[in-house]
Amino acid sequence: MKNRDRIRQYDSSLHVHFGSTGERRAVTALSLNDSLQVRLDGKRLLWSNSAQGENHECLLEEFGSDALAGNAFEAMQHALDRYSRRRVIFSRVKGAVKWGLLPAFGLIFALGLNMYAARMTGITSQAAPGPSGQVNEQPAFNPGAMQPGFAPPQQPQNLQLGNIPGLPPAADPSIVKQAINAGTKAGKYAVQLSQGGKGTVYVFSDPSCPHCRNFEPELEKLAADYTIQLFPVSVIGGPESSTAIAQMLCAKPEDRANYWKKIVKGDRLDAPTCPEGEAAVSANDQIFRKLNFLGTPTVVNTSGEQTPLTLPNTARAISQWLDQTKAQ
């Protein structure tokens, strides 16, 4: 087999064999993990690394002329430069995956999980966090007992939601209808966002809920044709939402629609709270749970029926659904 000069990288080692031009024609494996250095000394190539110390040099190869030694030294320089460039490229790709792609995939997964949880099961629990972070069972409580005019009648037994496993029983539409009508007439639980000629739409929404914020442009489209009665709740945002809602409900009725547009965008209100507003938020939250709504936003028609779980939250889809249910 004909001898050749070879300098090849295998993992973290550099295999050197000057089989054609070298005098010794030895095969040497040099570690690339220990700051390898190669030096030209006349007709010799010397190498050292950090493990041995700079003052301890080893003979790599001897050559018959200065020209051959110079060519060999340039070949070693080229091999080391190529290794350094590969390390830089690999480091950048690794960093891009670690700090770019992985967080992006994680964010997409988290958003998808949040959408599913908020729509399907995120708001069905009757438990609420206590002051110390522990979960305390909500008392069996009728908001109408404290807030006259917003007391739904007792629900009949054995109400089902189409035999869908894992979902709580839905309130009868007639129960929902009586509850939202009582709350609207009381004048202190709902906010009228618009006045339309095609009918009334009731919406339960949390200003801190991402899905509710995304739904706002569609709600504005519906407001062009329908009267929108909005029941603000804090089932997603907790104290942050309840404070903003209480400030809104303590304001004059004609100012509440504009206040809602502000708080649903995340803006803070420069307005006081009041006991009546705080009690109204609590009552809305209780009614939301009593009626077993699955998440926010929840859209209800005048018959007390909720939009189907598979219906997109778009103005066009909801408008078509309202026309269909009205015709039935």
UniProtKB/TrEMBL annotation:
Region described as Disordered: spans on this chain: 127-160
One Pfam assignment: Thioredoxin_2
Major subcellular site: periplasm
Keyword Plastid part of the UniProt annotation: no
Family affiliation: Belongs to the thioredoxin family. DsbC subfamily.
Entry's transmembrane regions: 96-117
Domain of life according to the entry: Bacteria
Residue span, Thioredoxin domain: 146-327
GO annotations of cellular component type: periplasmic space
Entry keywords, A to Z: Membrane, Periplasm, Redox-active center, Signal, Transmembrane, Transmembrane helix
InterPro entries tied to this protein: DiS-bond_Isoase_DsbC/G (IPR033954), Thiol:disulfide_interchange (IPR051470), Thioredoxin-like_fold (IPR012336), Thioredoxin-like_sf (IPR036249), Thioredoxin_domain (IPR013766)
Subcellular location: Periplasm
Organism of origin: Pseudomonas fluorescens
Name of this chain's protein: Thiol:disulfide interchange protein
